[in-house]
Amino acid sequence: MKSTEEINIRTKLSILAIGLLSFLGILIETSMNVTFPTLMQQMNVSLTTVQWLTTGYLLLVTIVMATTAYLLKRIKVKKVFLFAVAINIAGSFLCAMAPDFLILLIGRLFQSVSTGLATPTLFYIIFRTIPM
Q1: DSSP letters along 33-49, please?
Q2: Which of 58, 114, 126, 132 could form a disulfide with 88 if both were Cys (CB 3.0 to 4.6 A apart)?
Q3: CA–CA separation, 111 and 87 (whole Å)
Q4: What is the pLDDT along the chain (132 residues), one digit of tens a residue?
C-alpha cells in the first residue's frame, strides 16, 4: 500500500478541480428550490412550470451520468473535464442573463450536463490514479 506522499500534486489538484465542479453542480441544484417564489413572480410562471427547473436538471443529470462511462472510454478525461467546465460557464451565463423562463431552463440544462459529466469523472479519476 502506497502512502499519500506518493500521490503527485497534479493528481491532487485534478481531484480538487473536478470535485469543486461536481460540488458546484450539486449546490446549484439544491439551492434552486428556495428561489421558486421569486422566479414565479419575476418570470410570471406557475409553480408547476418553475418546478421543471429542478425536474429537468435532475433528469438530464441522470441521463448524462449514465453515459459518462461510455464517454470516458472514448475521450480523454481532460477533454471531458474542460467540456464540463465550459458548458457550466455557458449555462451559468445563460441563467444570469435569462430574459425569460425558457432561456433560464436551457441554462439550467447546460449546468446539468456539466454536473452529469463531473460527478462520475471525479470517481473515475480517484479510482484510476489513487492506489488502494
Answers
A1: GGGHHHHHHHHT--HHH
A2: 114
A3: 7
A4: 445 557 889 889 999 999 999 999 999 888 888 999 999 999 999 999 999 999 999 999 999 999 999 999 999 999 999 999 999 999 999 999 999 999 999 999 999 999 999 999 999 999 988 887
